Amino acid sequence: MKIKSNAAPIELSSPFYKINEDFCFDFEKFVASKNGHVKGNYNAWSYFIQGKILAPKVWHLKYKKAIYSSTGNLILSSKYQNLLTLAEWSTPMAGSHNSEFSIFKKEAIGIIGRLIQNAKPFKSLRKYVVINSKNNPTLIISLYPVLEPLFQTGEIYSIILKKDVLTISLRTDQHHFEVFENLLKAGAEEQANPT
């Protein structure tokens, strides 16, 4: 495996170590199936892994998990731990600098969201707002059906098109390869049939 363990010897028998190892193995296998490259580390507490897929266009994938505990004990219940799990998928979108937009989960922008004048509800989803949607409605409309399952579960944290890079951020402990595969297909169709 190219993703390496940085676990202490005592962690190797932890069931959490095995869960994280399996997650990283599945990620490496998926990226390799797309002729991509991976790097990263994992242990019983966390992982930080990255992948790069080159076709049909370049995509960068990052997954991070971190468990923070005030006592440093994996045995404690989740009541005493804070868990961060996130995924970020990004790809260059050449020539889009005049088409920037953002879709945020309302909790992600908090009080600042109330101050943004052009924030509007996103579709029929009450948990999300969109900013500058007039700048690139075609891309937003094409992304929604692909990402709808993640909108419905609330795992989408934000979608930002800025400085020619589209970044989709998730708060999830799942790979969601099936959704990512649909993004790849949509991108391949877009390249084959440019408008």
User: SSE order, as H and E?
Assistant: EHEEEEEHEEHEEH
Give the strand order of the largest sheet, numbering strands 1, 2, ... along the chain: 1-2-3-4-5-10-9-6-8-7
Q: From the helix content, strand content and strand pairing, which structural class follows?
A: alpha+beta
Unreliable spans: none
Q: How large is the share of residues in beta strands? A: 25-35%
- First-to-last CA distance: 41 Å
Number of β-strand runs: 10
| Molecular shape | globular
Sheet bearing the most strands, described?
10 strands, mixed
Tell me the number of helical segments per DSSP (H or I, 4 or more residues long).
4
Instruction: Give the radius of gyration.
Output: 18 Å
Mean pLDDT: 84
Which oligomeric state applies?
A: single chain
Which percent range fits the helix content? 25-40%
Q: Which terms would index this structure?
A:
globular; 195 residues; 32% helix; ten-stranded mixed β-sheet; 4 helices
Structural commentary:
This protein is an alpha+beta fold and 195 residues long. Helix content is 32%, strand content 35%. The protein is built from four helices and ten strands; from the N terminus they run βαβββββαββαββα. It has a ten-stranded mixed sheet with strand order 1-2-3-4-5-10-9-6-8-7, sandwiched between helices. Helix 3 runs antiparallel to helix 4. It starts with a strand and ends with a helix. The model has no long low-confidence stretch (mean pLDDT 84).
